[in-house]
Amino acid sequence: MGGHGSGRPLFSGRNGRDTTESQHRVDIRWLKQQGRLRPHAFGSLSWSSGGKETGSIGYAMEKDRMVLKYQIGADKEQIEQTVCFDRTPCHFGGYRQWFLCPGCGKRVALLYGAGKYFLCRHCYDLTYSCKQEQPVDRYMRKARRIRSRLGASDNLGEPIWQKPKGMHWRTFERLKNKADTANECSWRIMGRRFGLC
Asked: How many CB atoms lie within 10 A of CB 35?
């Protein structure tokens, strides 16, 4: 298939485990949202990074399964993989569709192309990159996420000046305090790390 799904991942975690974010993936929720889960639907899925395509696969939908067709490796080995679907009822009617992982049979929403076949993250022993973050990184990510919600700059050194239009003052103050606390915690950890406090 080429790209970072067929060779060594672009990012692996600090403990050496590969991450879900570094792999090509197929998301059944996205397929449903795009109307691609209809029987007899077919097409292709592609992934890109930095404006450059890193991989693509063809798919064909059947009533209760999907067939993936792709090539991997330097010798362009042809792979045809069948992935079955499962359904669970929703509380307010309707149902939700899932992939049944071809490796372990678990119901999953995402399949990853970390090897020859698309399997769940458990089969490939993938982890989430946020689970491997250091505390300082976690606090900084939290502060930036809240700042983004408040319409503030990503620069943690700049103060949060304005309340977003339509937001209650109490909500604004609560979120601003959370962002400031997370930012302060990250600075304290870095200060301890470099012997400044």
From this structure: 8
Q: In what order do the strands lie in the sheet with 52-61?
A: 42-49, 52-61, 65-72, 77-89, 95-100, 107-108
Question: What's the rounded Cα separation, in Å, for the pair 144 and 129?
Answer: 17
Q: For the residues 52-56, what does the mean pLDDT come to?
A: 82
Residue of 28, 13, 181 lying closest to 108 (CA atoms): 28
Question: How long a stretch of residues is the chain?
Answer: 197
pTM summary value: 0.60
Closest C-alpha to 43, from 64, 65, 67, 73: 67
Residue 24 corresponds to which amino acid?
Answer: H
Residue 170 confidence class, pLDDT cut points 50, 70, 90: very high
From 2, 65, 71, 78, select the one nearest 28 (Cα to Cα): 65
**For residue 174, how many other CB atoms are within 10 A of its CB?**
12
What 3-state class would DSSP assign to 44?
A: strand
Amino acid at 67: V
